[in-house]
Amino acid sequence: MPSDAHALALAVARLNRRMRRERRSELTPTQLSVLGAVALLGPATPGAIAAHEQVKPPSVTRILNQLTETGYISRLPDPEDGRQVLVEISAGGHLWLQQERKRRDAWLHEQLQKLHGEERDLLRAAAPVLKRLAEAE
Amino acid sequence: MPSDAHALALAVARLNRRMRRERRSELTPTQLSVLGAVALLGPATPGAIAAHEQVKPPSVTRILNQLTETGYISRLPDPEDGRQVLVEISAGGHLWLQQERKRRDAWLHEQLQKLHGEERDLLRAAAPVLKRLAEAE
DNA sequence: TATTGTTATACTCTATAACTATA
DNA sequence: TATAGTTATAGAGTATAACAATA
Question: Which residue is nearest to nucleotide D14 (CA to C1')?
């Protein structure tokens, strides 16, 4: 039933827009996401970060420039391949990441608390399926 | 558990990005969404459309201008209040809307087909809850 | 004076194409 | 010649502030 797809597409688009409006952070959602990727992947190349974030390298370059200005990350030359760059999160970046994630998710967390237990369980189960869809093909 | 919120926020943001990349339409997702709102709300003011789409009036004005150029909608003066404008979908706009919705949701529909029946049921149940969250507060 | 819609302006996020340096 | 990253440029989407017309 295509209407299932329609309903889900609509709901995801709307909720995404709603969440963006709730930002209570100095970092934009995208900056936060990239900072998280840098933390997760360890010293990683911009190319690897772009692949993980499912965006093109120029988009990552721009965000890395912003994060470098704040001192949350640093770029190091790759000793083995002069074309590559390794990106690392700083100690301050790590601390910031934790604080900002809490703030970013605060609104959604509040909303989830208002749901019935059943509905919360439903969304908890749905989240990994949605994530898998996002990573498809 | 805030990590529930985090997992869900991440999944929604990623899937939204993924869906946007799959556009196979002449209309952008936002244009399509506004066109759908005009169809749903019938002759409606830009203000009402903005409220329904959860965006500010200037954003709607811009999109209405684009849709007017294509002939999918038309603006009429409100006979009772000269400050207001009524926006209507045209016959061609209606036809286009149906075709474009199918195209827009085609990718997600394919992905849903690949899931197990249980997972599809899960997402079918989750969609209205997600939509409700998006409309909260 | 308040409301509706529009215009002006700016910022975020993303992409493609062109360029630089290295392999 | 191919690859990694960056720079240049453009387009989509959104917001706030200022403005015009009408109530």
Answer: B59
Q: Are B97 and B36 in contact (CB under 8 A)?
A: yes
Helix (H) or strand (E) holding B66, with range, is helix B57-70
Say yes or no: Cβ of B45 under 7 A from any atom of strand C. yes
Q: Which of residues 58-117 of A touch strand D (CB under 7 A)?
A: 58, 60-62, 64-65, 75, 81, 83-85
First and final CA of chain A: distance in angstroms? 21
Over residues A48-63, the pLDDT tens digits come to 999 999 999 999 999 9
CB B4 within 8 A of CB A112: yes
Domains of chain A: residue spans and CATH: 2-134 (1.10.10.10)
Contact assignment for A15 to B126 by CB distance below 8 Å: no
pLDDT (tens digit, 9 = 90+) per residue, B20-62? 888 778 889 999 999 999 999 989 999 999 999 999 999 999 9
Distance CA B25, CA B129 (A): 28
> Nearest to residue A76, comparing CAs of A44, A32, A31, A39?
A44
* Min Cα–Cα distance to chain B from A85, Å: 25
